[in-house]
Amino acid sequence: MISKKMADQLNQQLNLEFYSSNIYLQMSAWAETNKLSGSAAFLKKQAAEEMMHMMKFFDYLNESDHMAILGKIDAPATSYKSIEDLFKKVYAHEQHVTKKIHEIAEQAWKEKDLTTFNFMQWFITEQHEEETQAKGILDKIDLIGSDKKSLFLFDSELGNMAAARPE
């Protein structure tokens, strides 16, 4: 049985994952509007993945005799200076999510709630992958600079990455 404090943290994370999905979906719309269809496809897949994360928290809470509570979430930003600005925000957001995931795992450990601690291990690994991916994308953007031909190839590569990701 998980504590009320733990359930509250899990519900906060559920809503952060829901917000993350909205951020990436809105970023996808920005990319599509700016003729970056590969980036748009990549971000749309990212949005779906974040929704899947939200559902994991939703199910875990309900299975643990605590109601999953969907709270109010803010509207995401709708414009970015550049694709680099957008992915800097992605990276910063993923770092924020990682911090919150670690806080939940730490609280679970403190409470000796080993079931929740074990549940959080998947998210810890996932966040490492998310941060590494976002940093890698930023590194590639840094390499290409502002060259439009390179941006085209970069965008195509993100589209290929999106196509290769499972649903």
Overview of the structural elements:
The protein is mainly alpha-helical. The protein has a single domain, classed as Ferritin, core subunit, four-helix bundle (Ferritin), CATH 1.20.1260.10. 80% of the residues lie in helices and 0% in strands. The protein contains 5 helices and no strands. It has helices at 4-33, 37-63, 83-110, 114-144, 148-164. The chain is elongated. The two termini are 32 Å apart. The model has no long low-confidence stretch (mean pLDDT 95).
Give me some keywords for this one.
mainly alpha; Ferritin; about 0% strand
Helix-strand layout with pairing:
Blueprint lengths: L3 H30 L3 H27 L19 H28 L3 H31 L3 H17 L3
Helix pairs in contact: 1-2, 1-3, 2-5, 3-4
Task: Summarize the model shown.
The protein is mainly α and 167 residues long.
Number of helices: 5
Give the total of domains. 1
Query: What is the overall silhouette?
Result: elongated
Sketch the topology as an H/E string, one letter per element.
HHHHH
What CATH architecture would you give?
Up-down Bundle
CATH topology: Ferritin
Structural class call reads mainly alpha
How large is the share of residues in beta strands? under 5%
How much helicity do the residues have? Answer: over 70%
| Major beta sheet summary | none
Q: Care to count the β-strands?
A: 0
CATH superfamily: Ferritin, core subunit, four-helix bundle
Question: Residue-averaged pLDDT, rounded?
Answer: 95
CATH class: Mainly Alpha
Distance between the termini: 32 Å
Q: Spans of 5+ residues with little confidence (pLDDT < 50)?
A: none
Q: What's the Cα radius of gyration? A: 17 Å
